[in-house]
Design a protein that fits this description.
CATH class of the largest domain in chain A: Mainly Alpha
Oligomer: heterodimer
Mean pLDDT of chain A: 88
Helix content of chain B: 25-40%
Largest interface: A-B, 58 and 61 residues
Distance between the termini of chain A: 31 Å
CATH topology of the largest domain in chain A: Formate dehydrogenase/DMSO reductase fold
CATH class of one domain in chain B: Alpha Beta
CATH topology of one domain in chain B: Alpha-Beta Plaits
Number of strands of chain A: 10
Largest sheet of chain A: 5 strands, antiparallel
Order of helices and strands of chain B: HHHEEHEEHEEHEEEHHEHEE
Radius of gyration of chain A: 27 Å
Number of helices of chain A: 20
Low-confidence stretches of chain A: 248-259, 572-580
CATH architecture of the largest domain in chain A: Up-down Bundle
Structural class of chain B: alpha+beta
Order of helices and strands of chain A: HHHHHHHHHEEHHEEEEEEHEEHHHHHHHH
Strand order of the largest sheet of chain A: 1-7-6-9-4
Largest sheet of chain B: 4 strands, mixed
Strand order of the largest sheet of chain B: 10-2-12-11
Number of helices of chain B: 9
Distance between the termini of chain B: 111 Å
Number of domains of chain A: 2
């Protein structure tokens, strides 16, 4: 127990240390975000001291950009987790490696949501009145009390799932299914519920006809499913860019015509097998007869640092176990090399292609003088007849960080379908508001064409509609299969939906007032600074999460290499000696 | 004890190491100092805060959970605070609803002349903020023949009222039987009392303004900053759920002058009305004026009846 706690604290400490290691781009980015955060904090202190009069809000328009951002971000948080559906329900392999990124984004988004509601409160010092049991919690009558529960519950669920999976990966342990899979399924239902509850916050108000419409919930989900995955695509693109190895730092790559390294090779003997059994206890469950049967087909390769053990794109039937030393696996895609896995003693590599008989997905290079046990796919299959071995090999197959183009394309199709549905629902809404032409459509009139000379939101909503339509067309056309166009499309989606859902939904609900007065709203500078500050804080959190998660997923930051320096974990390191 | 190293070639290495250590230490402390200074600078506006909540106020109990002793202490503290701020010892009480009473307001639209005297009497009675201005009553100038609120004019500024071709409709909290504001409040800071008045515990409200969004009558007001009332204008007759001075960041609204009506007096807006357009009383008493009006008038209007809020505020015409 004490040891487990110590290990966990060690894990946290190492994660914390790695957060401070990076190149100049990382420091610039984090420094800039910190500055914006502090500006936001300063603006919030002003608001705290002088009240919400520092914002553009009034008794007429009593919610503004804070609640608009809150609404948008609840959608992002919900959609980020909904990506686990293809993985856990339809077993989509491509997206598997993205799940953690989605969940971490959900955590960051929920943190921002909670901050946005907090800054919107007139009396943040009385937050404890909201805590069930201590305060007075108006549950289930108030939709806001539902929101408090579902948002905090969602935060806890996602922190648990991400934290547990990452810690297991760090420990190189197979995660216990019962300890996270049920929570994943709860999180799926919960994700829908957080966004539905947020929609009900508006839908439930009979006095605001603009909101009091049953289509708001479905529209929220559709727009969330567009903006959420679009944000993840951008985040993944950034991760792919920053985790790419610079041309200088990798000495070998899948250059055509380069011969595979000639390694010292010898047939394996019983003691090699015993050495591996020591590192991989599951091997004990393999019957002696099977061992004897496969032993003649096994070889031990002794290679020096920088030697290539297998090469991306080639087809052969071998898989490998590391006996001593360390092997780094890197994949070349879209013009860049990226570390997908780092295998130490007792760990496997090359097994996925060997078993499937498909071309190699990545290149494996020895990072230090290394001994590996090479076995043909047939021998591995025989080993895997033992259930314990089967479990270990299968579990480790997914221990990699492979952000493929195909995964991004899967996300693209999610964004594509959601955007079509989103635009369709918008058309429904606009038709209902304008065709019947009754008095209740007055807010919509204000939003889309202006009312009695007031039209502050008109340019905004038409910008949003234009962005959404352009994004929709781009998504439908094959041009968005190119990653650069996809990035642009995602930006259009996010901005379009932010305006449509934030400013375009929250503000017109208040205009005109229930007594027919038209008072317009423009956020104040102080208010905008607070918003930027919160966004910067959210991005800061997400960057930190990724900074810690990426080396863990790559296998660089693990309990096995406790002695490594931060630079060794963080840097791209081929050709450098691994152990100090 | 380490022996002095005879090999002099080792010295430069140690020196470099030391200078590297010193450099990284200096760098770390420089970053740390800058960070702390920036943080302190960001927090500076907090110094401008006048009304920092004391522990006592921070931990104050919810109205419905206070014992009479708790309430006595709180009322005493409020008196002291008001005295410190306004230099005037107020008389703060916690008036409870009377048994067998349900208050109802009736407003005669034929009589109302749109003079807005009720608005100002209300502000004076209920210690509303003068800067920024908070008013509970909004008088709407409506064109003849329509009850369509979209056609209402809020900021009419005529030399003389009433103007020809218009009628006037004052709107304030309708004290709904089915109040949307109470339903949406996440912390039970607003509720309906047995005499039909929806009240707010100003010391419990968290200022989320959900009730303000929910109210179909735009009856609720928020203290966007610290309310300012000139000392000489303060009404010292105060009640806990009624007209005691509010703080920054909380909601308030019309409470049928709880400090008056629960003592058997009329609300301030009624007393000041020069046209006799306002009638107020106990609907459970068959002999009250409001009971008579509701019994005898052929048409009376509950504003936005289709909302299902069932207001205790009735508009009628002399027909």
């Amino acid at each position: 127990m004490i040891q487990a706690t110590k290990n966990y604290l060690r894990f946290l400490k190492r994660c914390g240390r790695i957060a401070f290691v990076g190149d100049w781009r990382y420091y610039t980015w984090m420094g800039a975000l910190t500055v914006v955060c502090l500006l936001g904090l300063n603006a919030y202190c002003k608001q705290f001291a002088h009240g919400l009069i520092t914002t553009g809000m009034s008794d007429e328009v009593s919610w503004g950009v804070y609640i608009a951002n809150f609404t948008f971000l609840v959608g992002v948080a919900a959609a980020a987790v909904m990506m686990v559906i293809p993985v856990y329900i339809y077993n989509n392999e491509e997206l598997h490696d993205l799940v953690i990124f989605g969940e971490l984004l959900a955590v960051a988004a929920i943190i921002m949501c909670l901050m946005f509601v907090t800054v919107d409160l007139g009396r943040p010092d009385r937050f404890w009145h909201l805590i069930p049991g201590i305060g007075q919690f108006n549950f289930p009558a108030s939709m806001l009390s539902w929101d408090v529960l579902v948002l905090n519950g969602y935060l806890v669920l996602n922190v648990h799932i991400c934290g547990y999976l990452l810690y297991c990966r760090y420990q190189k342990k197979t995660p216990a299914k019962w300890f996270y899979v049920p929570f994943v399924f709860i999180a799926i239902v919960w994700a829908i519920s957080i966004h539905t509850v947020t929609a009900f916050l508006y839908v439930g108000l009979g006095g605001r006809p603009f909101w009091n419409s049953s289509i708001v919930g479905p529209r929220f989900l559709a727009s969330a499913f567009t903006a959420g995955p679009a944000l993840i695509i951008l985040a993944i693109q950034v991760v792919r860019r920053v985790t790419a190895l610079t041309p200088k730092s990798h000495t070998v790559g899948p250059v055509a015509g380069q011969a595979p390294s000639t390694a010292a090779q010898r047939p394996a003997n019983g003691s090699d097998f015993d050495l591996l059994t020591g590192l991989l206890p599951a091997l004990k469950s393999v019957p002696a007869a099977v061992r004897h049967e496969i032993l003649p087909s096994l070889n031990v390769l002794e290679v020096k640092a920088g030697d290539v053990l297998l090469r991306q794109g080639e087809t052969d039937e071998h898989s490998f176990f590391v006996l001593t030393g360390r092997v780094v696996v890197e994949r070349f895609e879209s013009g860049r090399h990226r570390v997908t896995r780092s295998a130490g003693p007792g760990e496997q590599f090359g097994e996925v292609s060997a078993l499937a008989g498909t071309p190699r997905m990545a290149t494996a290079i020895a990072e230090e003088p290394t001994q590996v046990l090479r076995l043909p796919a047939e021998a591995l299959r025989k080993l895997m007849k033992s259930p314990a071995m089967n479990k270990v090999v299968h579990a480790r197959m997914s221990e990699r960080l492979m952000l493929t183009d195909r995964a991004l394309m899967t996300l693209r199709s999610i964004v594509q379908v959601s955007m079509l549905i989103n635009v369709f629902l918008l058309v429904n809404e606009v038709f209902k508001e304008f065709y019947s032409g009754n008095l209740h459509s007055i807010s919509a009139k204000y939003l889309f064409v202006g009312l009695h000379g007031h039209h502050a939101l008109v340019p905004w909503i038409w910008t949003a509609i234009a962005l959404n339509l352009i994004a929709m067309v781009l998504l439908v056309l094959p041009v968005s299969r190119s990653l650069k166009w996809l990035n642009l499309t995602c930006v259009l989606c996010i901005v379009g939906i932010w305006i449509e859902k934030g400013m375009g939904l929250v503000i017109p609900g208040f205009i005109p007032t229930p007594l027919g007065a038209i008072i317009e709203y423009t956020p104040s500078v102080n208010e905008a600074l607070i918003c930027f500050g919160i966004w910067a804080f959210g991005l800061l959190c997400y960057t930190l999460f990724l900074r810690m998660a990426v080396p863990i997923l790559q296998g660089r930051l693990s309990s096995a290499n406790d002695g490594w320096s931060d630079e060794q974990i963080a840097a791209s390191f081929l050709g450098t000696p691994a152990k100090p | 004890m380490r022996k002095p190293n005879p090999d002099m070639s080792a010295l430069p290495a140690t020196a470099t190491e030391k200078s590297v250590n010193r450099r990284s230490f200096l760098r770390t402390s420089a970053v740390l100092t800058t960070g702390l200074a920036a943080l302190a600078a960001s927090l500076k506006p907090l110094m401008e805060m006048e009304d920092f909540p004391t522990a006592e106020r921070f931990l104050q109990k919810y109205y419905k959970e206070m014992t009479p002793d708790d309430m006595a202490k709180v009322l005493k503290r409020i008196s002291t605070e008001v005295e410190q701020q306004y230099g005037l010892r107020p008389h703060v009480r916690d008036y409870k609803p009377m048994d067998g009473v349900e208050f109802v307001y009736c407003l005669n639209l034929t009589r109302c002349i749109g003079c807005r005297k009720c608005v100002h009497a209300c502000v004076a009675e209920n210690n509303q903020s003068r800067t920024p201005e908070i008013q509970y009553i909004r008088v709407l100038k409506m064109p003849h023949g329509s009850l369509d609120i979209e056609k209402a004019e809020h900021n009419y500024d005529a030399e003389q009222v009433p103007e020809k071709g218009f009628f006037y409709m004052p709107v304030q909290c309708q004290q709904c039987k089915n109040p949307p504001c109470v339903k949406v409040c996440p912390v039970h800071a607003t509720w309906q009392e047995t005499d039909g008045i929806t009240v707010i515990d100003y010391d419990w409200c968290i200022g989320c303004r959900y009730c303000e969004a929910a109210c179909p009558y735009w009856a609720r007001r928020f203290n966007f900053t610290k309310p300012a009332i000139p000392k000489e204008r303060l009404n010292p007759e105060m009640s806990y759920l009624g007209n005691r001075p509010r703080r920054q960041g909380v909601m308030e609204k019309c409470h049928f002058c709880i400090q008056r009506t629960r003592q058997g007096k009329y609300p301030a807006c009624l007393e000041v009305c020069p046209a006799g357009a306002r009638k107020f009383g106990n609907v459970l008493d068959p002999n009250s004026e409001v009971s008579y009006i509701l019994r005898t008038k052929r048409v009376f209007i509950q504003l936005k009846e289709e909302m299902g809020t069932s207001p205790r505020f009735f508009y009628y015409f002399d027909v």
